[in-house]
Every structure is written in C-alpha cells, then in structure tokens.
Amino acid sequence: MSDICTQEPAVSDQRHFLDRLVHDLREPLRTIEVYSGLLSEESGEQLTPESRKSLTEILRGASQIHKLVDSISSYAMALAPDDRKSEASVQLALRVVMVNLKGQIEACHAQVMPQDPLPKVNMSLERLIQLLQCVLENSLKFRGDRPPILRVSAERGEHDQWVICVEDNGLGIDPDDVATVFRPFERLHGCEYPGAGLGLTICRTIVESHGGRVWIDPNPRAGTMICFSVPGADP
Amino acid sequence: MKPRIILIEDNLGDVGIIRRALDRHVKSYHLEVIHNGSDALRLFQSVESEAQAMPDLVVLDLNLPRVPGKRVLRYLRESSRLCAIPVIVATSSDAVADRSDAIQYHATFFTKPSDVGSFMKIGELVAEKVFKPSR
C-alpha cells in the first residue's frame, strides 16, 4: 500500500480545499468590510483625520484580499472537470469577454481586433470565456502608455488542434521571465499593478486540462503574444 | 405584540450586522439566535408540539454546523404546522443551485453582500415579511 502522505492530492481534493478556503475567507472578510462601512457611516464625522485614514487603509486591505479570494475562486473553477464540453465558438466567447471587460476596454481606449472567422473548439463555452478573459485582462493590465491594440488570431496546429493567439502592443515580457509568468502568485511588477498573479496560471490550468499548451511568443511589433493550443471541434 | 424572529446563523459577525439591520428597519422585535442546524431542528420540533410559540419569520444561513440549512428549510416546508412560516435564506453563496432550492421551498433568497448599504436591506426584507405578509 502506498503512503498517503507522499501522494499528490487529487485535483478534486484540491478543488474542494480551495472552494472551502474561498468560503471561509469570504465570511470574515465580509465582516471586516461591512463593519468598517458601519463605522464610517455611523461615526465618520466624529473620527479624526488620522482615524479616517486608518479606516481607508483597512478598507483598501480588505479590497485587496477580496480580489485575491475572487482569483482563487476562479482558479478553483479552472480545476473543475469540464463536463459540459461541446463546440464552443471562439468568436462568441470573445464577444462575451468584450462585454465582461467593457469598462476596462473603454477606460483605456483599447481596440480588440479579432480575425474573421475564428474557429470552434472542443471545450465548454464557460471555460473558453474564462480562458480568453484571463488572456485579454493580462494584455489590458500590462498595456504601457499607448492605447492597447489586441489582435486575436487562430491557425491550425498539430493533432487537430487550433492555436489561438492574442497579440498586444503593451509592456512586453523579458525573455528571462517568460517561464515565471505562468507560475501562481508571480507578480513581476510587484504592487505596481493590481491582481493576485493568478491570471496566466488559470490559463495554463485550463489549457493543459484540455490537452493543449500555452506559451509566449516573441512579438515582432513589440508587446506580448500569448498563444494556446486547444482541441478543434471539427477534427 | 413584538414579532418573534428566529435567526439561524453561526457567524457572530453576521449576527451583529443583521441585528443592526433589524434595529434600523423593524424597530420593535424579539430575536432568538441559534448557531447550528441541530438546535434549529430541536426548536422547530418544540414549536410543532406547541411547547413554544410560532415564530413570525425565520432567517436561515445555509452553511451551518451539524445540520445544513437546506435540511432545516426542508423540515419546515414538510411540516403541516410550520410550512407557512416565512423564511429568508441569507447566505454567502450566489450559486444557482442554492437560489433555486430556496425558490423551490418558497423562501426569499438573500446573498450577503460586502457593502454595508446592501447588507442593511435585509432589514427592509424582514419588515416587509413581518408587517405585510403575502402568504
């Protein structure tokens, strides 16, 4: 009999652990946020400027944890088996992502330019949306000074797979850091940019669980090109 | 007579927030707090046997120690004496399955929010159920 302590925990155990962790973190976090709100609402005028500053810092910290917990929740979802696999349209998924990210896209005057047509792939629409949203959010976040231009393209890969690429004109990634960015909680820019450092880890988890891979290509026009391969819906 | 409200909630922070919301919107009420599902079932059994007065409203968390909230809700709805008690399911969950379970058992679903203004709305919901009952 193998020693249970030396075994990798099953993915379902990891997911259960993360779901539980997310729930158990959200409760006390909500307590902090709501009670800080109550304090500000009920006693805000009696607080000294220093105390008000402290309260703002408490709420800022809580908001950071909130984002972290949401990212962990999204990672737990990526670990779940994709049991609603079907013909998912990359075009439709991209349209949904653009609606989800409308605020961010408009705030930085970004242009998203999809190739027409884009293929159908063999995964659930829900998971494809999650995957594309992580890639696009990454490009929008690390955008540099110019308004972002995001080109989404697709070409046939090996073994009936499609390779989908998102190319941006943002900050780019140093070749030495390319392997690092897919690791969980890696934040190359520290606190300069918001986020938990899980976006590209979520992409890798989704892609690998569908038998594909994800990589970063050097981009001739500067910026970053994130590509991933996923099974086609029409082998 | 003050409305009798049963709050079944294990998180003391949430108990305090709900109490504040009731203070704002219901003013005069009698609140009993129960911290786990098995004590809740015991209380409802004693209401069924008429050893205790009928509550006017139940506020129920789903994620409870010992006996889950969904079982408590099912118990209420399957009892001919208790089935008409208005129930507000107040939970951290925004899962579709939890929401549809609540609707199936004729309960009002309330996802506990993180901002104080939205959380206080539970007081308005309680006032509506207690003072203008629709069933």
Overview of the structural elements:
The complex is a heterodimer of chains A (235) and B (135). Chain A is of the alpha+beta class. Helices cover 46% and strands 16% of the residues of chain A. Chain A contains 6 helices and 7 strands, in the order H-H-E-H-H-E-E-H-E-E-H-E-E. The longest helix of chain A is centred in the first third of the chain and has 33 residues, at 11-43. The N and C termini of chain A lie far apart (42 Å). In chain B, strands 2-1-3-4-5 form a 5-stranded parallel β-sheet, with helices on both faces. In chain B, helix 4 (96-104) links the parallel strand 4 and strand 5. Chain B is an alpha/beta fold and 135 residues long. The model of chain B has no long low-confidence stretch (mean pLDDT 92). Chain B contains 5 helices and 5 strands. In chain B, helix 1 crosses helix 5 (116-131) and helix 2 runs parallel beside helix 3. The chains are: A alpha+beta (235), B alpha/beta (135). At the A-B interface, helix 1 of A face helix 1 and helix 5 of B.
The N- to C-terminal Cα distance of chain A equals 42 Å
Query: Distance N terminus to C terminus of chain B?
Result: 19 Å
Strand content of chain B: 15-25%
Give the helix level of chain A as a range of percent: 40-55%
- Could you spell the SSE succession of chain A in H and E letters? HHEHHEEHEEHEE
What's the number of extended β-strand segments of chain B? 5
Radius of gyration of chain A: 20 Å
How many helices of chain B in DSSP terms?
A: 5
Please bin the fraction of helical residues of chain B: 40-55%
Query: What is the global morphology of chain A?
Result: globular
